[in-house]
């Protein structure tokens, strides 16, 4: 069995995202950056995850680059994940080392999408210093853009989203970040590769952003925090199961629900992808 989970705003939270029910002083620091703890996990989340990890393989799945993922010292040192999917699926780490076979697969998959240089040229046509602060080509796979969300021109971004679809890239906006990601790179594909490597029979997954949809659709059971892009897009569609709480409380809810699901006998289940058929 595999428990595959997104990290930011799913299992771990910044001070701004923890929610009103939690005080940072009561939380477990999980990420160190430039000498400061910037992400946290609740003690109950840590306890539940430790219990679940005794019976299921915990696979962190994140849009973070390898370098950014490695900053999350608590998960690396406490849970010692054998597998992790980083770079939005662009890298699969095996005991912290990129899997070369997966890298070859991703390089072939990227051939079906427009080259990165033309994508950023298209973005530059709508970009302005008024709302775009900086961007980087993360792991030479996708673009991560820091922006002023309140000043972002929504109509232009939606038109750009349609243009990118024709280039076989997609857009995700999460807080103050925008991601431009080629179709050949996905969390779900990375997770299915891990499933094949370990011979797992069942997958439960969680995530909050539209970049997590492929991850959720690759799972037999999926649960989504009551916040973020997916909740905003599908709260009334009946496609996903949502946690009872938002903020950091969602992390506790989703692990508890997944532990309950794993305790049930295997049955024929319908994945989120099949619900849309």
UniProtKB/TrEMBL annotation:
Segments traversing the membrane: none
UniProt superkingdom: Bacteria
Domain (Sucrose phosphatase-like): residue spans on this chain: 47-224
InterPro entries, per the entry: HAD-like_sf, HAD_sf, SPP-like_dom, TPP-like
SUPFAM superfamilies, sorted: HAD-like (SSF56784)
Name this protein carries in UniProt: Sucrose phosphatase-like domain-containing protein
Source species of the chain: Saccharibacillus kuerlensis
């Amino acid at each position: 069995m595999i428990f595959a989970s997104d990290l930011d705003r799913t299992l771990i939270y910044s001070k701004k995202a923890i929610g009103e029910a939690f005080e940072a002083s009561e939380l477990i620091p999980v990420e160190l950056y430039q000498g400061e703890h910037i992400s946290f996990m609740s003690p109950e989340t840590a306890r539940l995850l430790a219990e679940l990890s005794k019976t299921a393989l915990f696979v962190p799945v994140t849009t973070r680059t390898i370098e950014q993922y490695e900053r999350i010292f608590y998960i690396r040192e406490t849970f010692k994940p054998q597998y992790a999917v980083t770079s939005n699926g662009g890298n699969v780490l095996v005991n912290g080392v990129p899997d070369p076979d997966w890298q070859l697969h991703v390089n072939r998959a990227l051939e079906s999408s427009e080259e990165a240089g033309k994508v950023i040229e298209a973005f530059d046509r709508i970009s302005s210093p008024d709302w775009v602060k900086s961007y980087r080509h993360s792991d030479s796979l996708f673009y991560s853009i820091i922006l002023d969300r309140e000043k972002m021109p929504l109509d232009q971004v939606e038109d750009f989203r349609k243009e990118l679809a024709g280039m076989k890239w997609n857009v995700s906006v999460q807080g103050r970040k925008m991601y431009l990601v080629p179709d050949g790179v996905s969390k779900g594909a990375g997770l299915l590769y891990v499933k094949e490597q370990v011979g797992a029979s069942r997958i439960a997954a969680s995530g909050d952003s539209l970049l997590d949809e492929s991850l959720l659709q690759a799972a037999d059971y999926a649960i989504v925090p009551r916040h973020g892009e997916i909740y905003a897009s599908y709260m009334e569609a009946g496609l996903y199961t949502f946690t009872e709480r938002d903020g950091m409380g969602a992390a506790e809810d989703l692990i508890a629900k997944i532990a309950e699901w794993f305790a049930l006998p295997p049955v024929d289940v319908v994945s989120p992808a099949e619900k849309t058929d």
